[in-house]
Amino acid sequence: MSDTSGGISVKSAMRMIALLCVAVLRLPAQNAAHISREVLVELERSCLPDARLRAAQHTLAQIDGNKASQNWEKIIGVDQYFSLRLKDQKITDQKSTGRCWMFSGLNILRPVVANRLKCEEIELSQNYLFFYEKLEKANLFLNAIIETRRTPIVRSSTSLNRLSRTARTGSGSSSL
After folding, report:
1. Given CA atoms 115, 93, 135, 159 in this order, what sign does their dihedral have?
2. pLDDT of the chain along its 176 residues, tens only?
3. If we measure between CA atoms, which residue out of 8, 102, 101, 95 comes closest to residue 59?
4. In angstroms, what CA-CA distances link 165 with 55, 66, 142, 158, 169?
């Protein structure tokens, strides 16, 4: 498992890294604000000059340590096949409407609805949901206006903050 240029194996590099971790864990606890000079000197002294350690340091400086430390046997052992397959349906294109949340939600519901209605193809209307979403937002806005109708129109930050707070919380009880 060593590379062809005379380097060390991944297993040896990991062993050296483990030794470094043990050396660091044996050091006294530090103040969270800084590492003292004594600790740095002790760390340097604990790392004996070793070609394998230097190779491990060079390797870790060039690769992602998370990838090097992953258990690849577990990753390879993951079953790539699923026992539940959903029937493929035609893709719905949202274009540039900005309603991806609505399209994805309806695409999750679509196979369930198609199965219940015993039909091959079905397309759920995003326009219907979009209309009612806009209607609810308009209702919320109008309720905020109704609640503040007796408030004098003053361009102070206090009045604007109150109006903004009312619109955000939706504390109105009137409806269209």
Report:
1. positive
2. 444 445 566 677 677 677 666 665 665 555 556 778 888 888 878 877 788 888 888 887 888 877 777 888 888 887 777 766 666 777 777 777 778 888 888 888 888 888 899 988 888 888 888 898 889 999 999 999 999 988 887 666 666 666 667 666 655 444 44
3. 8
4. 61, 45, 14, 10, 6
Backbone angles phi, psi at 30, to 5 degrees: -115, 160
Token reading at 132: 């009612």
Reduce the DSSP state of residue 13 to 3 states and report it.
Answer: helix
| Domain spans of the chain, in order of start | 10-76, 82-123, 125-176
Closest by Cα among 102, 103, 85 to 93: 103
Nearest by Cα to 63 from 113, 108, 10, 18: 10
Nearest to 60 by CA among 109, 20, 13, 121: 13
Question: Taking the model in full, what pTM does it have?
Answer: 0.34
